[in-house]
Amino acid sequence: MRRLKTLAVIGVGLIGGSFAMALRRAGAVTGVVGYDRDSSAMQLATELGVIDTAADSVSEAASGADLVLVAVPVRATAAVLRDVGISIDAGAVITDVGSTKGEVVRTARNELRERFARFVPGHPIAGRETSGVESANADLFRGARVVLTPDEATAADAVELVRGAWEAIGGRVAVMAPEEHDRVFAAVSHLPHLLAFALVSELAAREDAAELLGFAGGGFRDFTRIAASSPEMWRDIALQNRAALLEELDRYGAQLAVFRALIDKGDAPGLERLMNEARTSRESLKPGMRRGSPLE
How many domains does one find in the chain? Predict the structure, then answer.
């Protein structure tokens, strides 16, 4: 990819900060300007050397940038894109990191208008339980899958610039339609996160919650690790991908009912068969797909 003169990061947290650090280390950007609604996050990002300049607004950050990375909760995307659209240069490119894509594309079309062709929707499959720029790491995206979901109207050179940026920092880029992305991730990411939140919520509401959680072992911690993720972010994801997520909840509920019926009947062979099928499928996952992430 060509070296960027200026990268603008809107939302200087784990993902935005890691992207900036990784591009800088790769020698792919000269300067980084950042904006975050949390002024303390910008101050810390400056102190850590993640950004060079802290802007006073989204518009100020985007003005003059070659590439604008929008790394905010998905329901905040509209207001950010509106301000980005009125301030970017004609040749600048905009991308995002949201975990839903269909609604983001529709929002971008409405807010960016004539600049919509410069928008490349993106979703890096990487993250940590901890959030904030203090957790940013230049190696976060090395070997991680990154999904791009460009629209038919998206400019080819914009797609190539964003692809090049992700590949420069170790990302493995795939391209799919926004609707396909949302269907896939409702099953393999959004549903598991909701289940983890629901399990912890249910146990925590019991009168003997302290005792139960006091005996929680590795299995419980592994299963519920992603419940430590940002509630604000996952609230927005669940609501933005509502239709696909509800369908997956119904599918999961039906399968859970099958397991319940087998246990109720004492059907050991049937229960073992389903468990073996699940174990075989789990063990067949590619090594790169085994990386856990609260931001998938």
Answer: 2
Sheet strands side by side (includes 53-54) = 53-54, 29-35, 4-10, 67-70, 93-96, 119-120
Is 25 part of any domain?
Answer: yes
87 within a domain of the structure (yes/no): yes
- CATH code, domain with 117: 3.40.50.720
**Domain-ending residue, one of 127, 145, 176:** 176
- Which band of pLDDT confidence, cut at 50, 70 and 90, is reported for residue 290? very low
pLDDT of residue 294: 42
- Position of tokens 């062709």? 117
Cα gap 237→96, rounded to integer Å: 14
Q: Is 291 a domain residue?
A: no
pLDDT per residue as tens digits for the range 222-278? 999 999 888 988 999 999 999 999 999 999 999 999 999 999 999 999 999 999 999
Q: What is the pLDDT of residue 287?
A: 59
pLDDT band at 186 (very low <50, low <70, confident <90, very high): very high
Closest by alpha carbon to 147, among 119, 111, 185, 93? 185
Q: Rounded to 5 degrees, what are φ and ψ at 285?
A: -60, 140
Same domain, 188 and 161: no
C-alpha angle with apex 127: 124 to 131, nearest 5 degrees? 125
**Of 143, 176, 209, which one is at a domain's C-terminal end?**
176
